[in-house]
Amino acid sequence: MSATLDDLSLGRPSLSRAQLPSWALGVTAAGVLVLTGLLRLVTHMSSYVALAIIAVALYLVAQTVVSLSVEGWRHAKNRLMTSLMLAAMVLAVLPLVGVLGYTVAKGLKRFDSAFFTHSMRAVAESDPNGGAYHAIIGTLEQVGIAALISVPFGIMVAVYLVEYSAGRLGRVVSFFVDVMTGLPSIVAGLFILALWVLALHQGTSGFAGSLALVILMLPTIVRSCEEMLKLVPPSLREASYALGVAKWITVVRIVLPTALPGIVTGVMLAVARVMGETAPVLLTVFGNSAINTNPFNGPQASLPLFVFNEVGQSFDNAVNRAWTGALVLILIVLVLNLIARTVARFARVRG
Amino acid sequence: MAKRLDVKDLNLYYGKFHAVADVNLSVPPRSVTAFIGPSGCGKSTVLRSLNRMHEVTPGARVEGKVTLDGEDIYATAVDPVVVRRTIGMVFQRPNPFPTMSIRDNVVAGLRLSGVRDRKRMDEVAERALRSANLWEEVRDRLGKPGGGLSGGQQQRLCIARAIAVRPDVLLMDEPCSALDPISTLAIEDLIGELKKDYTIVIVTHNMQQAARVSDQTAFFNLKGAGLPGNLIEIDDTEKIFSNPGRKATEDYISGRFG
Amino acid sequence: MTSSLQNTRSSKGGDTSFRLLAKGSGILVLLLMAAVAAFLILKAIPAVSQDKGNFFTAFQWDPQGTAVFGIAALAFGTVLSSLIGLIIGVPVAVGVALFISQYAPRAVARPLAYVVDLLAAVPSVVFGLWGAIYLSPNLIPLSKFLNHYFGWIPLFASTNQTYGKSVLVAAVVLAVMLLPIVAAISREVFVQTPKEHMEGALALGATKWEMIRMAVLPYGKSGVISAIVLGFGRAVGETIAVAMVLSSTYSISWRILDPGGNTIAANIANRWGDASDTISQGALIASGLVLFAITLVVNFGARAVIRRGRAKA
After folding, report:
1. Is pLDDT at B67 greater than 60 in this prediction?
2. What are the beta bridge partners of residue C6?
């Protein structure tokens, strides 16, 4: 028995194996840097991005060759994959840093009081003044109304899905909420346009924009609410029923308040998401260069739409306004995200 | 191929938590050593430090010496990957890779070692499955996923997977705790047969099992709440169960606590 | 006794109305989705019936003049830019998901995940602005390089060596936009890989990467596939960012470095301003309907993958 098994043994004299000393990779990296420097001198390549890419690629090759010759292919592969993951991580963070940094740098030029107190009324696109006051008001009103409609609506749908739906209808509703999640924002805009503006002849207005945003917010709110309601322990509900409390009072007084922090987080994230939506607003609020505080009557401006329109002008002053608009938009969205996550963290500590 | 294991002044930590203190023991080749003791006394932690699986947990740390035929497995030149390849492990819950077929599960370790020869892999798979007393039950469905087997069969598949690479030592972490009595018996019989070729260390909750399968038994216990676990005594199984040297061991075995 | 009975009755009434309210909300969702389809179809049919070309095969988009319009070029551009976006974005996204779930120490993993989520929060109009003003000139050297060395591949051929607002730029912007979605979903499934499988692989003497190949990737496969499909759906529907970085053309061309390219969604955004008659409007709505149908199919696909993955696990 032992003899037959021995011919299968894979020959391993010892537990240790040749490993790269800790300085080896540092030396490799230094070598690659020197090589890249030489390359720059020889080819006069000026793009640092290109040089960085070449340096990283060279390092990956060099590391693999060094590791392969000392440690063997298994460990060379392991090192290569580890480096690739790290490279992917860096590569993913770069655009975020790039977008944020570039927007801040460009946006600060017009980040002045005039931008927040003036509209574009009687301002030529080539003028250096003008602002986004009208657009900020429009966006806040449109998103606010959208939230007023979709939050109670979404919560009720979530309550239905978690507390009341046992049968086929629940599954169908749940499925179509998923479908809604995948609905492109421009299609939501087209729908409100076809229904509200073209079929019902209501005209473009801030409210039409709100309706389009409702369609985009609703599935996000339903899904996050659903998750939160499912997290409420069944024992809590049972305790309430055992005291003879009616189901709906249990839901309103016990289940929803318990899930509240999570629901708030979900709502904030949904608001942040639709705040930056341009496509549906483009089709439904139409845009306006003057202040229109009434969302129910006549075209309104909106901040993302303002950015889109300004960048379409070929004047530097207009593009500067676009950057500042983008900066304001990012700030609002980031603040909302931050608040949402803070709420979520507190909720987790309490739960 | 079976080798002896020696543990010297072993201390194990999870972050700041001192899990096990000052363990000294020896495991002779071609024998079965059982680790027994109450829950949380660190016997599984000690087992996992014998093939460097302890350090897989984030924050886990090891002090002391574990030697395999005199070679320190924690020496700096030693590669944990080679250690784990040399010291096989079977877990509490059967864990065949669900997307792999029965055959691929058995030869998974071989593949890692760079073996590509199909014929040789088939031979190894058959031999390992025969050694694990599973061949007759699965020979007609080697291409089917391992997840379709019963719990006991899955555990024997995992044993086959571990012995397919001909390890020097086989570690078993409560291998029967998720199994029914009949499957448990099958595994215990198997351990008796594997003893001829391997050094085996088994953690068990079941004292009868320790008495049935092991040659020597190590009893672990906690010094007190919040204190590290430690080795109370290690001796021939017969002696531990008939005439233990320490009162704590006797209390535990007679069911007075734990 | 009487009061407690009354109490029961009133709470029962409350129960019924609350249940009906909840159920009504659910049904309203269904009605809403039905209305979306119905009104788009209603407004699309008159325009499509007056199309002098074939709506599905024509390249041009001229509803007012010749009344010939079709979505062939637009649909092609949509799929092409989204696919290239996936090819660029998915490997990075999966790498990020693996890095955060398997490599990064726990103290770093959480902030990193948060940073990637932030990427998803940046409004698409900002990405469009960045893509049009920063990215598109800065990708010209890369375009030149690709054309110079790989110009023999039709994808990298160039008509007259002018680059700029090309499908490549749109694809890079789309890659950045779908990255956080794919990374977040993939990360979630990777994190759920059973510990037993990972330890089983390590105990056999697998290196970290081999453990990932043996345990993490097989477990996460269906989740990653559905993440990719959902990312594709997102890319297909993306409007503003794409509209801002493409210089719209109406032709089918594989040359992703050439200025040009177009997508269904971008076309709607670009052409809406001058669509004043019902045919122009209806034509755009009809193209939106096609977009809706594409995303529906994509989402069905993703869900089917998830269901099959669940059934297997």
Report:
1. yes
2. none
Which pairing describes strands B60-68 and B71-72: parallel, antiparallel, or unpaired?
A: antiparallel
pLDDT for position C310: 66
Nearest CA to CA, how far is C70 from chain B (Å)?
46
List CB contacts (< 8 A) between A77 and chain B: none
Candidate from B75, B114, B165 with C-beta closest to A16: B75
Residue of C95, C311, C310, C105 whose CA lies nearest to C217:
C95
| B22-47 confidence digits (pLDDT tens) | 999 999 999 999 999 998 899 999 99
Are C190 and C216 a contacting pair, CB within 8 Å?
Answer: yes
Q: Kindly report the CA angle at A315 between A129 and A97, in degrees rounded to 5?
A: 90
User: What pLDDT score was predicted for residue A350?
Assistant: 45
In this predicted structure, what is the pLDDT of residue A11? 47
- Nearest Cα neighbor of A180 from A149, A205, A150 is A150
Contact C199 B158 (CB under 8 A): no
Residues of B in contact with C215 (CB under 8 A): 97
For residue A93, list chain C residues with Cβ-Cβ distance below 8 A.
Answer: 115-116
**Chains linked to C by 3 or more Cβ pairs within 8 Å:** A, B
Angle, CA of A265, A270 and A275, to the nearest 5°: 125
Task: Give the residue from B50, B68, B78, B81 with the most C CB atoms within 10 Å of its CB, the best one to mutate.
Answer: B81
User: In this structure, what are the phi and psi dihedrals at residue B72, rounded to the nearest 5 degrees?
Assistant: -70, 120
d(CA A272, CA A303): 13
| pTM, two decimal places | 0.89
Partner-chain residue, chosen from A5, A10, A15, that has the shortest CB–CB distance to B73: A15
Residues found in chain B = 258
Q: What is the pLDDT of residues C154-174, one digit of tens each?
A: 888 888 777 888 899 999 999
Q: Is A128 helix (H, G, I), strand (E, B) or coil?
A: coil
pLDDT at position A22, please?
80
Please list every residue in chain C whose beta carbon sits closer than 8 Å to the beta carbon of residue A102.
130, 134
- Residue C197: which of B95, B162, B165 has the nearest Cβ? B95
H or E stretch including B231?
Answer: strand B229-236
Backbone phi and psi for residue B190, each to the nearest 5 degrees, phi listed first = -60, -40
